Target: Short-chain fatty acid transporter
Amino acid sequence: MKTAAKLFTNLTNKYLPDPLVIAIGLTAFTMLLAMVIRGNSFLEVTTQWGDGFWDLLAFSMQMTVILVAGYILAKTPMVDRGLTAIAHRVTSPRAAIIVATLVGGVGSWLNWGFGLVLGGLMAQKLALNVKGLHYPLAIAAGYSGFALYGVGLSGSVPLLIATPGHFLEDQIGLIDLGRTIFDPVILGMVVVLLIGLPLFNAALHPKDPADVKEIDPTTVAPAPEKLQADKSGLSVGERLNASPVFSIGIGALALIYLVQHFARGGGLDLNTVNFALLFLGILFLTRPMYFLDTLNDGIRLAAGIVVQYPFYAGIMGILMGSGLVVTFAAWIGDISSAETLPFLSFLSGGLINLLAPSGGGQWAVQGPVMIEAANQLDADYAKTALGVQIGDQWTNMVQPFWILPVLAISKLKLGEVMGYLVLILVFIGVVFGAAVLLWGFLG
Model:
């Protein structure tokens, strides 16, 4: 297994370009598929690409905010002290890989934006404290926990189909979370992955010290500057920036709003999650000056994804406008039965995610087709829908779209971690595929 990891790492280091180049290459590939499979002309797919390029602008902003807000919360003294305390208790490289995987996995199950950043920060702290830890594997391990986000408390598809007024309510009604993320089979799958994945990742750690790349401490972002003990030299504006009154006051106001929101029956969506993460960060950092310092670091972290989100929106525009996504899903439906449709939904969700990595956006395109297939086959709607979601989170392991923030934290290149993520993809695929296939045959 270590030989395979080394082989894939060497290959990806040598041949894998930066994520932006991959996004451009996927654009060209999707255009070619639309012309060959659907018979669209070059001008037609060019129009579809351009028309769709800004379709995910609001979603892109939501994703950017959740990543920055998650980073800010993860860098608050309370969370930072917790991560530091954990890191100081770990002494061996393999134990560090296990811890990074678990922190990323549990964090992503609770909230994907928070967990995505938390796994990378945990890996970084462990790399600073554990001698001989292979940093690229630690970062890959911290990111691998992100594979649990879609079957967690912030999974986009299960939350959407449980929300009144969702766009498929007339076809499938409301599907409560007890039939999706809290189903015993899915909970069992989560437990198996939380036990098996850390051990699998730990087994990938190089034995030869010559193969180990340790962290460069100079690449780690410094903590926000602490408030000066002597405030006599501060101007009025600087005193206001350093006052806890503003942060605590607006943080308390936000908490009051959230309590009212849920008391009125409000649901948990991306905007609510962003609101909570942002103001918890303000509250826990206690002073506006600390928040702004951390915000600046977080914005730099998200810089790489700002332009790339529209490229994937353009790919989605081609998939939708050309009918490619309908073709892909129809092929799956033609070879399915009621029992196997969830499994084939999983495979198709994983395939389409490689071209259009957006759980909620992908479901908006693929959902109607898969639900129609489920209707014709009399298959379970909940299992079919969650199959797509699980496929999406599976191939996120090798889809550069989501790992960009983690690379920004680590200052590593994509090729340095991708070799490990390919092997992680295979392991997770076996666990996910077996669970979804079993689930489809259960009553």
Remarks:
- Residues 1-214+241-441 form one domain.
- The chain has one domain: 1-214+241-441.
- The two ends are 37 Å apart (CA to CA).
